[in-house]
Amino acid sequence: MIEHNGDTGSTATATPPAPRNRGGRPRGRQRAHVPERRGSRRRIPFHARLRRDWQLLLMTLPALVLLAVFHYTPTLGNIIAFQEYNPWDGLLGSPWVGFAQFERLFADPRFWHAVGNTLMIATIQLVFFFPIPIALAILLDSVLTRKLRLVLQSIVYMPHFFSWVLVVTLFQQILGGAGLFSQVLRQNGYAPLEVMSNPDAFLFVVTSQMIWKDAGWGTIIFLAALAAINQNLYESAAVDGAGRWRRMWHITLPGLRPVIILLLILKLGDVLNVGFEQFYLQRDAFGSGVSEVLDTFIYHQTLVTGNFSAGAVAGLVKGIVGLILILLANKLAHKMGEHGIYRRA
User: Fold this and answer.
1) Among 66, 142, 208, 276, which is disulfide-ready with 295 (CB 3.0 to 4.6 Å)?
2) What residue ranges define each of the domains in the chain, with the CATH number in brackets?
3) Over the chain, what HEC string results?
4) Is the pTM of this model over 0.70?
5) What is the pLDDT of residues 174-228, one digit of tens each?
């Protein structure tokens, strides 16, 4: 709309009126922007997500089937812990006894003896075995030559692929009564070693075997964590005059802290599962007094004596204790400011 000014002859442009509705209210008014609340975003329908992600779901199907067949389905067998189970009668024909099997197990001194040995071995492994892969990873990461690093990694990884039968045999051939060291001592007029049959040396032997076999394999995760640390931090610290030890204390270890806490939580949850083959193979040589752990106790209660209900009770108790330890350790990690295994959204 153009208006003419009679005095000056100039024109002025007037703003056209806004369109109005029948009620006289302006039409087309913009609404004030309201910030979207967190979590108020509309959720994608299930069928849309299925069409979008069906390839990924198909890829995970074999893993889910294996998990269901070998983990969740056997879990249903824990019902025999509340029965007087008889293989001939089956799950449906065996009488229901409630918590009577738990009372018998907790009253068995052999069970508490196995628990004590398991906790002792787990504590020693946690103190002496757990820090070694961390130190070994830091040493391997500090090797300047790439070829030398690959050679050293291959050497320390190799024992992980040996079976426990071979590991125990090697230690027997070296430290046993007829082993290499004992033969050298006999030739020089000394008494032979009694390491592989001495109950007092059992903790030292099993810890040494585990360190030799699995310490190198445990460095893989820590080497990956070291590779994720920003190298500019080391260069800046070196420019500021920080030495090797100060860089390791203030950069390397803080960078490894989340991984260390995560693996420590998993190790605490697995504290009652110290292994079976390693202790079963050496049970006769060292005696059941020091080598009986929960796994060997469950084996003898189920397959040897045929008391399947007692073995199921012991396994169920071990699983419940492990779950409680994981939850407590994860809660402690949250208190320390770490994510742990999981964190609620």
Assistant:
1) 276
2) 119-285+326-335 (1.10.3720.10)
3) CEEECCCCCCEEECCCCCCECCCCCECCCCCCCCCCCCCCCCCCCHHHHHHHHHHHHHHHHHHHHHHHHHHHHHHHHHHHHHECCCCCCHHHHCCECCCHHHHHHHCCHHHHHHHHHHHHHHHHHHHHHCHHHHHHHHHHHCCCCHHHHHHHHHHHHHHHHCCHHHHHHHHHHHHCCCCHHHHHHHHCCCCCCCCCCCHHHHHHHHHHHHHHHHHHHHHHHHHHHHHCCCHHHHHHHHHCCCCHHHHHHHHHHHHHHHHHHHHHHHHHHCCCCCCCHHHHHCHHHHCHHHHCCHHHHHHHHHHHCCCHHHHHHHHHHHHHHHHHHHHHHHHHHHHCCCCCCCCCC
4) yes
5) 888 788 888 888 888 888 888 888 888 899 999 999 999 999 888 988 988 888 8
